[in-house]
Amino acid sequence: MKYIYSILLCAFLFSCTNSNQSVIKTDDDLTANIKLQYESYVANDFSFSDQYSEDVVSRINNLVIDDRDNLMTGWKSHHEVLFENIDIQDVYVHTNYFSDGAVWSNAWFTWTAEGQTTGEEYSNRGHFDYRWEDGKIVELLAYFSEYPEATETAAYAASQE
After folding, report:
1. Which residues partner with 143 through β-bridges?
2. How does DSSP classify residue 120?
3. Smallest Cα–Cα separation from 83: which of 156, 26, 157, 9?
4. Does residue 13 have a pLDDT over 60?
5. What sign results for the dihedral spanned by CA atoms 142, 46, 97, 102?
6. How many CB atoms lie within 10 A of CB 85?
7. Do residues 112 and 83 make contact, with C-beta atoms less than 8 angstroms apart?
8. What's the CATH class of domain 22-159?
């Protein structure tokens, strides 16, 4: 009988502590939305922008970009001015549902493209973090080499002089 009480106590304590556990998912809607964003970006389709709050704060390396329109303008310039043959490969995304209610999606991938001005071929590993509130992305953290964008921007600017 003593063992039964011990087992029941352990089961009760275990079930109580589990309610404070965070969960990582790879098959949820938010994870799927991020994957679809990448596919849409590659296709030069920015209809996914409504997944971002209007006042999203984006921290891209050491640059802060305020609001959705400025963020989308930057990404659109990749297709319109800087690069061609853009692709995103080796995508892995999961979403963290933290016990405090915070929700973050994390993504790792390889971005590739060819410079429109230089013709240089680029391959760039990236890591993006997305914080969700009320079904919208309110914060984006992005980490990747700035070399391709800096190189093509400088070459484009020089070609316009």
Report:
1. 127
2. -
3. 156
4. no
5. positive
6. 12
7. no
8. alpha beta
- Residue given tokens 């209809």 in the structure block: 47
Mean pLDDT of 98-121: 98
The DSSP symbol for 67 reads: S
Two structure tokens written together for 128: 């993006």
* Number of continuous H segments (helices) and E segments (strands) in the chain: 4, 7
Cross-strand partners of 156: none
What's the one-letter identity of residue 126? Answer: G
Beta strand 83-97 with 136-144 is unpaired
Please give the Cα distance from 156 to 64 (Å, whole number): 23
pLDDT tens per residue, range 40-98 = 999 999 999 999 999 999 999 999 999 999 999 999 999 999 999 999 999 999 999 99
What is the mean predicted confidence (pLDDT) over 7-19? 50
> Which residue in the block uniquely carries the two structure tokens 């011990």?
6
d(CA 23, CA 95) in angstroms, rounded, equals 8
Q: Spell out the domain ranges in the chain.
A: 22-159
Three-class DSSP category at 73: helix
In this structure, the number of other CB atoms found within 10 A of the CB of residue 78 comes to 19
The whole-chain average pLDDT of the chain stands at 91
